[in-house]
Amino acid sequence: MTLHVPTLVLMLAAGFGLLTLQLWMAGCGALGRSELRRLSLAGLAFCLGFALFGLRPWLPGWLVLLGGNWLLMAGLAALAAAVSRHLLNREPPVWHHGLLLAAALVVPAVLDVPTPVRAGAMSVAMGVLLLPATLAAMRLGWRGELSFRAVALLLLLASLLLWLRAGLAARWLGAPPAEAAAWQDGSRDVFLLAFLAVLAAGFAFVLAHFERMASQMRKLASVDGLTGAMNHSTTVSLLAHAMERGRREGQPVGFVMLDLDHFKRVNDRHGHAMGDQVLKAVAACARARLRGSDVFGRLGGEEFGLVLPATGAVGARHLAEQVRLAVEALELRGDGGQPLRVTLSAGVAEAARGDTPETLMHLADKALYQAKQKGRNRVVVADDWLRNSTLQSVVG
User: For the chain, first and last CA: distance in Å?
Assistant: First the structure.
């Protein structure tokens, strides 16, 4: 059983047309991205190429073969550019343009050769053009968005089908006349199925793109753009989650509040740009000393918080002291290259039964205030007296 070729060609032209329309509509809004524009160009080239093949009964054969194959090759090159932008955020290397040129030169060179030779040559040329995108998708895309794995598998299928068609064309060339028609039908059907896989990969690419956009928006909603720390609301939510888990598993939970000493002086003397650099450096010091399960958040301004699961007051104090010493040792330069010394103070609290995230943070804030009162550049752990006074102030 063979496929009804005119119907399948029409389906491919319509499918790539719909893909192009979808991408054009996405590009008109705020979601337009360079990889989508390249994919849109690929879809348009595929649509026009298969539309040209569909007009074969009414157009000169040489025009259909030349224009149709060139358009399909241009589409494959644009698809490779879209994959490169998505995975590597750059254009394909220069040698890929050389591949496109070499593949395009193959088309006029084989117009007058026997059909099996032409079919095999076109399949090899297109398979070579698709190979870089397929390899990049399999090697790099597999670690990205889940939807992009479908893109990688579909591109691999399309590549294998193109190379299979080249093998079928070789068998067709050497087949007896009675069997040649069967090999010809098989070769044509495999070719069309390869581009059905490319069409499916295009729609999967769009899904992967929007999956990435959604992930980026979630990150923007939870992460401080300057320091890369979790924002205030996310830190509080993760602290509540850590405390609930600690209660279930009988594990302690520590919280550390960090605050840079005299940070206003840094902004006043050296400018806000330097102040931002200081915040980034301090954030890097803290993040480098955390475990994978710990949470580093920016609570506002120059104030940060550390959520430390399975960590009691002793361990939390030790970590806070490490961060304090690392910040004190920072070699920063202010205006005119003058040395800029930065220190921080820290308040440490351990969650107790009945504590809420707000209670624990308030307790750490009280300990931080004690550190400031005692001369700054030190770590203070909340004791029972401080806890009792904090609870009384919260209740009151």
Answer: 83
